Every structure is written in structure tokens, then in C-alpha cells.
Amino acid sequence: MRTTIGYTIESIGYVVGAQGLISFGSQAFFGTEWGWMHKVVGLPTSAYLGVFAVGLVLVAIGVRTRKGPARRKVA
User: Fold this and answer.
1) How far apart are CA 7 and CA 15, in angstroms?
2) How far is 13 from 56, CA to CA, in rounded Å?
3) CA distances, 32 to each of 9, 15, 47 (Å)
4) What pLDDT score does 19 carry?
5) Is 36 helix (H, G, I), strand (E, B) or coil?
6) DSSP 3-state assignment of 44?
7) pLDDT per position as a tens digit, 20-69
8) Which of 5, 14, 23, 72 is 20–30 Å from 48 (CA)?
9) Burial class (CB within 10 angstroms; exposed 0-12, middle 13-18, buried 19+) of 23
10) This model's pTM is above 0.70
């Protein structure tokens, strides 16, 4: 079950992070809006870097969650 939850959180993190990065890049460098994030929330350009950071945190949590049980030390 931990593996399934880990992969799910990690997948959501990839999508959120990518959308944050795409939204930031499109507004900062091209003056347009790409992706679907701008249809959900209207954030300032710099706030999309925060969305990207949230995506990275979700990916990290997902990877930690899906790791297998710790190995026991053999004495």
C-alpha cells in the first residue's frame, strides 16, 4: 500500500511541478499563458515558482513513502 501511495503522490508532484515551471516560463519569457494552471488559479508570475517547489516536495515525499522497509542489521 505504501508503494501505491508513494507512486501516486510522486506522480501528482511531477504534474504540479511541471505546470508551475511551464506557467512561470511562459509568463516570464514569452508573456503568454501555457498549460492549464492559469485556468485554475490566477497567480503572479513569481508565485508559479512556489508551485514548482510544492511539486518538488511532493515528489520527494512520494519517493520516501514508497521506499521499502529498512534493512535489519545482522550482528
Assistant:
1) 12
2) 6
3) 29, 20, 16
4) 95
5) coil
6) coil
7) 999 999 999 998 988 888 888 889 999 999 999 999 999 999 998 876 66
8) 5
9) buried
10) yes
